[in-house]
Structure formats: C-alpha cells, structure tokens
Write a structure and sequence with these properties.
Blueprint lengths: L14 H25 L4 E8 L13 E2 L2 E7 L5 H15 L1 H27 L10 H39 L5 H26 L10 H32 L15 H5 L3
Helix pairs in contact: 1-2, 1-3, 2-3, 2-4, 2-6, 3-4, 4-5, 5-6
C-alpha cells in the first residue's frame, strides 16, 4: 500500500540493533566483494556436469555443452558474488535506495584502497631471508590487479543497475511483488556484470592461455550467468524469509509497506 509519507514502524527496534543489522549486511557485502576480487580467476572450478535429455538440447546453447553433456565451469571468485547481490537487495528493501547506493560506492572505494595497499606492498623492496612467499605474493598480485580493475568497472555499473532496477520495480508495483524486484534487478545486473568483467579480462589477456577466442569467452559468460541466474532464483525465498523476519527494522523512506504473511502467499 502506497502512503503519502514514510511508513511508521509500529514495533521499532533500538537504534543500535538497526545499526548492527546494517553494518552486518555491509560487512557481508564488502567481504565477499574484496575476497572475490583477490582470488578472482586464479582458479576455475567445475561445479557440475549433467547429461541432458534430448528435449532440453534445443534450449541449451551449444557453446556450453559437449554434445548432450553440460558442464558448469566458473572462476572461483564468482562464488562470493551472490552474497553481494543478496546484501544490496536486503538493504534496498529494509533501508531504502540511498543506503544501498551508498554501500555500492563504498565498495568501489574499498577496492581502490585495497589496490593501493597491495600495489605499495608489491613495489616496496623485499627483505632477503625473511619473506617466505614472495613468488606467491607476486602471482596473486598479478591476477588481483587485472581482476580488481576490471571488476571495479563492471561492479560499479552492475550494482548501480541492480539498485536502480530494484527501486524501479518497487515503484512500478507500488511496493508489492518482492519476488519481481529481487529477481528482475539481480538477473539483469548479473548479466551486465558477467559480460563486462569477463570481456575486460579477455581483451586484456587475463583469462589464461586456453581462452583464445570469442567462442571460449561466450562459454565463460554463459556459465557465469547461469550460475548467477540460479543463485538469484534460490535467493528469492531467502530474501522473503529475511524480510519477514526483519520486518521491524523496516524504514523505507519511499513509503511502501512490507508484505504481511498473508500477502506473501498471494504476492505473485
């Protein structure tokens, strides 16, 4: 239900608990973001391999299957990123667009900070006889620089798209249909993110020697997006449960009520 002003929470929680929730969600977001950029494409993993039935073959692009076998291969850093979209969507729902956008910008600055510290460490002189993993550090730094620069560009665009689309759908549906804004924002922004980051890494030569053509790049983008797409679907019931559980933290300045338990069942 849309009101003329902000909704008054009838059961407000103490301010320090609201701050703790907000800071906790920010911590999840920033930790996942930084970790994903550090490990990035240092390793690719095969999450699953499926033998597809005949009726599914026309639905699955030939670029991501070998005959009738589909294998999901993704960079290991990608495992952290569903948590970033979960955090921004939950902050968007409970605390509003401005705080979610502020977190996106904070994450961008955090990446610059991390890159600056790592670069300073890389160029400072080594202490002979003391350092035990200089080669390892140099290797991680080499991957991290390319990942972080490419990721910062893709991230800023994708997360901004996520926040803006989330609130576009929220205004369009007058605060109803949480599933639509959660999935409609995340699925589009994740396609932007996958395409942007992997394309940047490909054209800068940071995806490994075996990724030598656009077909291989398309395979990686599709696999990454399928993983993010499925993550967004599985994320929806978790978002609903979290929003209901944390309904007393709600402070949306746009004036939309959270769905009641009875409404949630009919919120399609």
């Amino acid at each position: 239900m849309n009101q003329s002003g902000p909704i008054e929470n009838k059961n407000p929680v103490p301010g320090y608990r609201r701050d703790a929730l907000f800071l906790g969600l920010c911590a999840i977001f920033l930790t996942a973001l930084v970790m994903g950029n550090i490990i990035g494409t240092t390793k690719f993993i095969q999450l699953l391999s499926l033998d597809l039935p005949g009726w599914m073959l026309p639905l699955v692009p030939v670029q991501v299957r070998d005959g009738s076998t589909y294998s999901m291969v993704i960079p290991v850093g990608l495992l952290a990123f569903p948590f970033t979209f979960f955090a921004t969507d939950l902050i968007s729902e409970l605390f509003g667009r401005k705080k979610a956008q502020m977190l996106v910008l904070t994450g961008f600055v955090m990446n610059l900070f991390m890159l600056g510290i790592m670069t300073a460490n890389y160029y400072l002189p080594d202490a002979p006889g003391v350092s035990a993993g200089t080669t390892l550090f140099d290797g991680v730094y080499g991957f991290m620089v390319a990942n972080t620069i490419g990721s910062m560009i893709a991230y800023l665009v994708a997360q901004t798209v996520d926040v803006q689309l989330f609130h576009f759908w929220k205004r369009f549906t007058k605060g109803r249909h949480l599933w639509l804004r959660n999935n409609g924002s995340t699925m589009v922004s994740q396609l932007v993110d996958s395409t942007a980051i992997l394309s940047l890494l490909y054209f800068t030569g940071n995806l490994g020697d075996e990724v030598t053509g656009l077909a291989a790049l398309i395979i990686l983008i599709l696999n990454s997006y399928v993983f993010k797409f499925l993550s967004a679907l599985f994320d929806t019931p978790v978002i609903y449960a979290a929003v209901y559980k944390l309904r007393n933290y709600y402070e949306d300045p746009e004036g939309y009520e959270l769905p009641r338990r009875a409404d949630a069942a009919a919120d399609g």
